[in-house]
Design a protein that fits this description.
Blueprint lengths: L13 H9 L1 H12 L7 H4 L9 H6 L3 H4 L5 H4 L11 H19 L5 H6 L6 H16 L13 H4 L22 H6 L4 H9 L16 H23 L2 H42 L5 H49 L9 H20 L6 H17 L3 H45 L1 H6 L3 H50 L6 H43 L8 E2 L6 E13 L8 H5 L7 H6 L1 H4 L3 E13 L3 E6 L5 H9 L3 E9 L3 E4 L10 H6 L6 H10 L3 H5 L18 H15 L3 E5 L7 H15 L4 E5 L11 E6 L2 E6 L1 H7 L2 H14 L40 H5 L21 H11 L2 H31 L5 E4 L2 E4 L9 H46 L3 H6 L2 H43 L3 H46 L1 H7 L2 H50 L6 H44 L23 E8 L9 E8 L4 E6 L5 H8 L7 E6 L2 E2 L5 H5 L2 E4 L8 E2 H5 L7 H10 L3 H5 L8 E2 L8 H15 L3 E5 L7 H14 L4 E5 L3 H5 L3 E6 L2 E6 L1 H6 L4 H11 L4
Parallel strand pairs: 1-5, 4-8, 4-9, 6-7, 7-8, 15-22, 15-23, 18-21, 21-22
Antiparallel strand pairs: 2-3, 2-5, 9-10, 11-12, 13-14, 13-16, 16-17, 19-20, 23-24
Helix pairs in contact: 2-7, 7-27, 12-39, 13-14, 13-15, 14-15, 14-17, 14-21, 14-42, 15-16, 15-21, 15-41, 16-18, 16-21, 16-38, 16-39, 17-18, 17-21, 18-20, 18-21, 18-38, 20-21, 20-35, 20-36, 20-38, 21-35, 21-42, 27-29, 31-32, 34-36, 34-42, 35-36, 35-38, 35-42, 36-38, 36-42, 38-39, 38-42, 39-41, 39-42, ...
Length: 1482
């Protein structure tokens, strides 16, 4: 049997259907047995591997072209067999035939691998490799188990075994099996670094995350501790900081212990060994003594370097574990909520983007805060011992620095908090902009949104400037405070008449420049990390303490009862999200939000808003309950109440069994078509294909480039509204649950498909299931067991359809009105499924929603063989993110310098660094000269004779030396302030310029860019990458530039004192450059991989938040959490390797820097007597400070380059993105009154969505006269929405032209064109702000005009009853209004614009019949003087049109008046009307 035979019920003739009616009683039992397998699993299918069934849908179920021309449900609605509530026999018999089709397909091997290979499929190797890698996480992972025994430390303690043989698998983290040598030297990463240098790193080269660092393991551990804390202290008293301490205390104590050892070693080197070595230089003691001090100096520094490596080794792992634990716990918290409450998606994404880094820094750098006080106290005691009490004056400088640094850190923390709030707002605004970009473009609202973003960015920049300046002062002071302290100490000491020897002076200088400066630098970073980390912990705690919904669903006592509502009053959380944004938006005068913000406290006080009142209802198992009511009556809330997503204020809600949910707005994942249906369930071929057929998806799948393996974009961007809704329905059907909650699932599909779904799904597959069916399609109500009529949140009427009709109340009136329209040919029907339905507010389909791949526009009646020759890769919509290779190009640095103000400005800024560092270095040189001058051969009287003094206080030029030395304090402080201000201004100018450029470039990109780029990737640019450029690139670069000059001054001093050092310097320089050139490649590659690995995680978080209701309804929290954990682990792994690679480089460079000090010490040993002790001491002091600073600077250069990958990514977006046509072309501006008549002319119009996709409009030509009302009808993929795409120039034509009033629209600027057209999209889009802002963002119209528009769309009463009326808040996605209300507000928006041409794209799908008929009257009256193009939704809208345009496969089939088309029974339109009439069960 050919698998395509009997594919549609249309293959059965009327005689067969008559027989079905006669055998109804016998078939009832058979139906029950046959139907259940549709949503139960078939054991035989489960045995097949997933890959074997690849692309089977297309092969098995494509009908022949002649059959496919018939509407899929036509046979169900023709002839004698009008469908009735009791007639299921035709369904069951047809179902048996479908079963036979599937069995034959399976038997004949259509789903086998050999067929797949024969027909030329190639497997997506990258996707398979990624899946296999993800599976390895399950194999490697260990489950957290609470343990109080010492054995829990065993894995960590094994690192102290000197050498361990690696037992790990090749793809496992080598660190887990390394011994002490590898642990200390980071040699376990050497092979990866070498591979990076030789070939570059690929994803498969990177090992998977360590089992002890995995998100799942650490989240479980952290969660157990948090729950204990909450249990012990209560929610209010619980301290997340205390939990963090418990989580990491053992590792932290170990790290601090080792850190203290490094401090001791750093203290011993200069204070003991170096002092004795300098003293030895000016004595005649034997050489062996000098050798002992030299050896001691070198050895103490070597031990310090090695132990410091251990500190970082411990801290890095502790950091990634806490980072994983905190964000894993936040994600799990999100999974337990039905909405974000007063948090926006932008805030949540920002938490994952930026707070992750801050938590890590908090652990890694925060504890090092103890280094500063320890070193300072040690230094004070030592210098007091060495120089006496006058040294206290100098030490006061230290002591004053600490409160200064504390004040700076407090100020930094305060500014950081304020900045984060504004950044959250900007990211949220960007998220909303990306979600609604199509509508914004069609309305030509770019300026309004650009000004809003610019205003927010201006405030963010203002705060960043303050923060950066404070940071700059802090950075400049850290190295200068020790020098100033030394100057004050020595001036006080000498001024009091005491002597100062070279050994004393240079020991103090060495200690201050080396240990104290390093610890002060560390203190600056650690204080900042500590403050910001605590702030991040507070932000995380605020999410963890958010109210979760209290479960209120109970199990009913009666076994045959599915749902009971007993006097239930339920509420939604009130809008409170504007509270924190009050201050931020007050300054924004242009965006129209301000009045609401000022009045907002009135709203904030409300905790919950009751929306359902005193509901009493009992539903038996297997019952089909219809729920209807007008817009805003509470229908969707009724479904949410049964899902447990609301707050129960009083009464009881009982529910027995599992739920499946089809939301009013279909939620689609960025995954393959098949994965969207399976949603984590096991693949069962037979059940799957029956679901595909029942939901009428067969032809849709057949037309897709890779069948059901075609990738579906974010928010279902490449599906029509109807396809999204049917996909959502297929997911529910496949899930096989007890109770089905369907929220208006038929509004987005046409009459044929709606009838098919109602009969095959709701009355067929689900007839033994409990179903609650919300609908505006009143024709189906008589077929339901009972009807619930809601009015203002209360059950106004309840009973069977016939009883309610007898009662003759509101419901009966509504239904009769509907039936009269049916009799008058104003049918509750669509002519064909279009990209329909008021269901996906994120996308306005007119911008190409159904056609973005171009494949929906292919005629679906292609032969199976042709389709099969396409490759699965064809189904890939989302472009892979490009992983850059090689060096950061010079053009990136050039772009950054130009953005900062150009080469001259940048050079001047660099010289401010030179002046600042030069003044500190000169102070040490001046001291050496002073010490070398000694007493100036001054003779002093000793007893009865005179001798030459050895006290520098006796020098006759003492005043000159003191004055110059003292004035250097002012020079140092002055250059520090100038440097900080200059650097801050230039870097922030650069980042702001880059933000503005990339924002304009992204926003001006054509729609194809947004369709093929996940929002997570774009958000990554504007959140994490901008954060890097705003904060981290300047911070790293500032330290790098400062250190470059410090190193230069150190090497100059060593070379001036010991010219013999120059040859050694050349050799050392070559070694340094060799190491850096090799291994910076690995570091850079790790950073790039880390950048790329973030985007999928952000996209997943964004998808999760948008789909919380669906995920919770299906109980898929675990599946989504698991995917998040794996994505997070992938990021953790490269993030950890990047940091370890930095430390790998550091430890080797430190050892090379140790050579510099060793050579200097040995030279001073050899050249004793020929070099002054004071200058030898100066060279030693500066050589000693090189040890830490040299590696740090080389590492910083690599880190700066790594951080410049963010600049490169922004630069690439700025340079590589294509742009739309200009907004305004001055030479081609139309007349201010254009279009005056509204005549539209399409001439040979050809359109394709992207260069690599087929034509969707194939040379269509037609004319529309002034003020004509045109209806557009046609099958899915016929090109209806593409007419609008061409009209609004969302895609430029491939050929032909469109003229409006004789003007070729391709000559005009896009703003001039789009601002003169209006569209009412099928998907209602509202923005965060106020009602007024949503209707009139430019504030062009008076309040009276706005109220008038609301009155005409029947929303005036609703808005007038809100506390703030026009200034009432609209939350993210307009969630505080029902979908119907949102659609009405979109219509009011179009009414306000009052343009000459109006395009309606399925604009009334979410509106009840009564309101729809009123709206139609409004449209006819309000737009009397307009040319209207209506994509047909209900036939009444088409029947009132002047002419009707029938499209098929991108060509015009018919274009005439409804009367003429109906007069010809053979016309395509007449056939559609006939089919629609017969599809309505009477």
């Amino acid at each position: 049997m050919d698998p395509s035979e009997n594919n549609t019920p249309g293959s059965h003739d009327e005689e067969t259907q008559g027989e079905h009616k006669e055998t109804q009683s016998q078939s009832n039992q058979e139906e029950e047995n046959e139907t259940v397998p549709l949503i139960e699993s078939g054991a035989q299918a489960d045995a097949e591997p997933k890959v074997i069934t690849e692309n089977a849908v297309r092969v098995a179920f494509l009908p022949p072209a002649e059959e496919a021309d018939l509407p899929i449900s036509e046979s169900l609605v023709h002839g004698d067999a009008s469908y009735s509530a009791d007639d299921n026999s035709s369904y069951s018999d047809n179902e048996a035939d479908i079963d036979q089709d599937i069995d034959d397909a399976l038997d004949e091997g259509y789903m086998g691998m050999e067929c797949t290979l024969e027909r030329g499929f190639s497997l997506n190797e990258a996707a398979i490799a990624r899946d296999l890698r993800y599976e390895r996480y399950d194999e490697v992972a260990v489950k957290y188990e609470r343990s109080h025994s010492f054995s829990k430390y065993q894995p960590s303690l094994k690192h102290f075994i000197p050498v361990r043989k690696s037992s790990a698998e090749k793809d496992e983290m080598p660190l887990d099996s390394t011994g002490l040598y590898g642990f200390v030297s980071y040699s376990w990463i050497t092979s990866l670094m070498w591979k990076a240098y030789k070939k570059g790193l690929k994803e498969e080269d990177v090992p998977i995350c360590s089992k002890y660092d995995m998100c799942d393991y650490n989240t479980d551990r952290f969660e157990a501790m948090w729950n204990e804390e909450v249990k012990r202290k209560g929610k209010e008293g619980a301290s997340l900081q205390r939990v963090v301490w418990r989580f990491l205390r053992t590792r932290l104590i170990m790290a601090l212990t080792f850190f203290m050892i490094t401090l001791i070693m750093g203290f011993v080197g200069p204070t003991i060994f170096m002092r004795f070595l300098i003293t030895w230089l000016s004595t005649d003691e034997p050489v062996t003594t000098g050798m002992i001090w030299t050896a001691g100096l070198i050895f103490s520094e070597f031990i310090r370097i090695i132990i410091f490596g251990v500190v970082w080794s411990i801290s890095y792992r502790t950091g990634v574990r806490l980072r994983a634990a905190c964000l894993g716990l936040v994600y799990k918290k999100l999974m337990r909520m039905s909405s974000l409450g007063n948090k926006s998606i932008g805030e949540v994404i920002n938490l994952f983007a930026n707070d992750a880094q801050r938590i890590y820094d908090f652990v890694v750098l925060g504890p090092l805060i103890i280094g500063g006080p320890v070193v300072a106290i040690g230094g004070v005691i030592y210098i007091l011992w060495l120089l006496g009490p006058w040294a206290l004056f100098g030490m006061l400088t230290f002591l004053l620095f600490y409160p200064f640094q504390y004040g700076i850190s407090r100020l930094t923390g305060y500014l950081r908090r304020r900045t984060v709030t504004v950044t959250d707002e900007r990211v949220r605004m960007m998220n909303e902009l990306l979600t609604c970009v199509k509508l914004i473009k069609m309305y030509a609202w770019e300026k309004s949104f650009t000004s809003s973003i610019t205003e927010i960015r201006k405030r963010e920049r203002h705060l960043l400037e303050k923060s950066a300046y404070v940071q700059s002062i802090s950075l400049a002071m850290a190295p200068t405070v020790p020098v100033i302290a030394a100057i004050v100490t020595f001036l006080a000491h000498i001024g009091a008449g005491y002597n100062l020897t070279a050994a004393q002076g240079m020991t103090v200088i060495s200690y201050l420049l080396g240990n104290v400066r390093a610890s002060f630098n560390m203190l600056r970073f650690s204080v900042r990390a500590f403050v910001e980390g605590l702030d991040s912990v507070r932000r995380i705690k605020s999410i963890l303490l958010m109210d979760e919904l209290e479960p209120y669903l109970k199990t009913p006592q009666e076994p045959d009862t599915a749902v009971v509502l007993d006097q239930a009053t339920l509420a939604w959380d009130a809008v409170s999200s504007f509270k924190k944004k009050k201050k931020k938006k007050r300054r924004n005068k242009k965006d129209g939000i301000t009045p609401a913000d000022q009045l907002m406290p009135k709203v904030v006080d409300l905790k919950h808003i009751d929306v359902l009142f005193d509901l009493c209802l009992s539903i038996k198992k297997g019952e089909l309950i219809a729920v209807c009511g007008s817009v805003g009556a509470g229908k969707s809330s009724f479904i949410s109440a049964l899902l447990g997503h609301m707050r129960l204020q009083s009464g009881e809600v009982y529910l027995q069994g599992t739920c499946a949910y089809v939301g009013q707005q279909a939620w689609i994942m960025n995954a393959s078509f098949r994965e969207n249906i399976l949603m984590g369930e096991a693949f069962d071929a037979k059940r799957y294909y029956r679901v595909i057929y029942a939901c009428n998806l067969t032809q849709d799948v057949g037309a897709m480039p890779a069948g059901d393996f075609t990738e579906i974009g974010e928010r279902g961007i490449n599906l029509s509204g109807g396809q999204k809704q049917r996909l959502s329905l297929a997911r529910a059907l496949y899930a096989n649950r007890d109770i089905y909650l369907l929220d208006d699932p038929l509004s987005a599909v046409d009459a044929h498909v709606g009838s098919h779904i109602f009969q095959w799904v709701i009355k067929g597959a689900l007839r033994n299931k409990t179903t609650v069916f919300v609908t505006h399609q009143l024709q189906y109500l008589p077929l339901c067991d009972r009807v619930v009529y809601l009015r203002e949140g209360k059950i106004a009427e309840l009973g069977t359809h016939s009883i309610l009709m007898e009662d003759n109340k509101e419901y009966a009136g509504l239904y009769r009105t509907h039936m009269e329209t049916v009799e008058n040919q104003e049918k509750e029907s669509k002519t064909e499924e279009t990209d329909a339905g008021g269901r996906q507010r994120q996308d306005s389909v007119i911008s190409g929603g159904s056609s973005l791949n171009g494949y929906q526009k292919n005629s679906p009646e292609k032969s199976p063989v042709k389709e099969v020759k396409k490759k699965p890769e064809d189904g890939q919509l989302i472009t892979e993110e490009k992983l850059e290779k090689g060096d950061i190009p010079l053009s990136t640095y050039n772009w950054y310098i130009k953005a900062a103000g150009g080469y001259i400005i940048s050079t001047l800024v660099i010289f401010t660094f030179a002046a600042n560092v030069g003044s500190t270095a000169f102070s040490s040189w001046w001291l050496s000269m002073w010490l070398s001058a000694g007493s100036g051969n001054t003779e002093v009287v000793v007893g009865n004779g005179t001798v030459i003094s050895d006290n520098i206080a006796d020098n006759p030029d003492l005043f000159m030396y003191q004055t110059v030395y003292g004035c250097l304090i002012l020079v140092i402080l002055g250059t520090s302030l100038i440097r900080g201000f200059a650097f801050m201004k230039t870097t922030l100018k650069a980042s702001s310029s880059m933000h503005d450029q990339v924002f304009v470039k992204v926003f001006r990109s054509p729609m194809s860019f947004f369709d093929t780029t996940p929002s997570g990737r774009i958000i990554n640019i504007f959140s994490r990458d901008m954060d890097e450029v705003d904060v981290r690139v300047p911070m790293t670069m500032e330290t790098f530039l400062q250190n470059i000059w410090l190193i230069t001054s150190s090497l100059v001093f060593v070379c001036l004192v010991f010219p013999h050092f120059l040859p050694f310097l050349v050799v050392l320089a070559i070694l340094f450059l060799f190491i850096r050139s090799i291994f910076r490649i690995g570091i850079r590659d790790f950073k790039r991989m880390e950048n790329v690995s973030r985007s999928p995680m952000y996209s997943h978080v964004s998808t999760t938040v948008n789909g919380l209701a669906t995920i919770n309804a299906y109980g898929k929290q675990e599946m989504f959490t698991k995917k998040f954990m794996v994505l997070f682990d992938e990021n953790t792994c490269v993030f950890f390797l990047f940091n370890c690679a930095m430390r790998w480089l550091a430890i080797r460079l430190d050892l090379l820097a140790l050579l510099v000090m060793s050579i200097t010490a040995i030279l001073s040993l050899i050249l004793r007597g020929s070099v002054e002790a004071s200058f030898a001491g100066l060279a030693l002091a500066y050589a000693a400070q090189l040890s830490g600073i040299f590696q740090y600077t080389v590492r910083l250069s690599t880190e700066t380059e790594a951080r410049f990958t963010s600049v490169q990514r922004i630069s690439n977006y700025t340079k590589c993105l294509a742009s739309e046509a200009p907004a305004i072309i001055e030479s081609k501006r139309p007349d201010p009154n254009w279009p005056k008549y509204g005549r539209i002319s399409y001439r040979n119009v050809q359109l394709k969505y992207r260069p690599d996709t087929p034509l969707v409009l194939k040379g269509i030509t037609f004319d529309i006269d002034s003020l004509e009302k045109i209806g557009v009808v046609g099958r899915t993929g016929s090109g209806k929405s593409s007419l609008g795409v061409a009209l609004f120039r969302l895609v430029e034509l491939a050929g032909g032209s469109v003229r409006i009033d004789g003007v070729d629209i391709s000559d005009l600027g896009l703003e001039d064109l789009r601002s003169r057209l209006s569209i009412i999209p099928q998907d209602p889009v509202l923005f965060i702000g106020t009602v007024r802002y949503n209707l009139d963002p430019f504030e062009k119209y008076t309040d009276e005009a706005v109220w008038s528009a609301l009155e005409q769309t029947y929303m005036k009463e609703k808005i007038a009853n809100l506390p703030l009326k026009l200034n009432a808040p609209v939350v993210e996605n307009g969630e505080n209004f029902s979908v119907g209300e949102r659609q009405l507000m979109c219509m009011a928006r179009a009414l306000l614009r009052n343009n000459k041409i109006l395009f309606l794209d399925e604009a009334t799908a979410a509106i009840d019949t009564e309101t729809d008929s009123k709206i139609q009257r409004t449209l006819q009256e309000a737009f009397k003087a307009c040319t209207m193009i209506t994509i047909a939704h209900r036939l009444n809208t088409v029947m009132a049109c002047s002419r009707i345009l029938v499209l098929d496969d991108g060509k015009v089939v018919e274009f005439d008046t409804p009367r003429n088309l109906m007069a010809n029974p053979h016309s395509a339109f007449a056939k559609m009307v006939a089919a629609a009439e017969s599809s309505i069960p009477l």
